[in-house]
Amino acid sequence: MAILANPILILISAPYIGLSVYDMLMHKRDRIVPKKEKLLHAIILPLMAGFIISVYLGYHKIAFTHLIISFPLMIIDEFIYHKNLHPKEVKVHRLAGIALTVFIGYWLWTI
């Protein structure tokens, strides 16, 4: 059984996870998401989940791999599908980006 590498990382990841879930709920309720964007999200979600879990468990090489693969996909998603979003969803995306940056920064600082 694996032990958490740094329990504080769970607290620091909470804002990003919470904002990501909120964004997902906004997709269900506020706009029609194109099939290609849904497919991209279906690829990004397990990669980011794998990244966060790997960080929690201290599997840094696996975490880096997940992040390196998901990062360009997230950029594609942002610049292709999120150009004309409602201002509320844009705000959620920006806050999630800040929260993810803080999480990654703290993780890198601790390894």
Describe this structure as you would to a colleague.
Helix 1 (8-30) packs antiparallel against helix 4 (87-110). The radius of gyration is 14 Å and the shape is globular. It is 83% helix and 0% strand. By secondary structure, it is an all-alpha fold. The protein has one domain (8-110). The chain is built from four helices and no strands.
Number of helices in the DSSP assignment: 4
Radius of gyration: 14 Å
What is the terminal separation in angstroms? 21 Å
- How much of the sequence lies in strands comes to under 5%
For the sheet with most strands, the description reads: none
Roughly how much helix do the residues carry, as a percent range? over 70%
> Which structural class do you get from the secondary structure elements?
mainly alpha
Based on Cα principal axes, name the global outline.
globular
Enumerate the spans where pLDDT stays under 50 for 5 or more consecutive residues.
Answer: none
Question: Summary?
Answer:
This protein has four helices and no strands.
Helix/strand layout:
Blueprint: H1 8-30, H2 35-57, H3 60-81, H4 87-110
Helix pairs in contact: 1-4, 2-3
Task: Name a few traits of the molecule.
111 residues, mainly alpha, globular
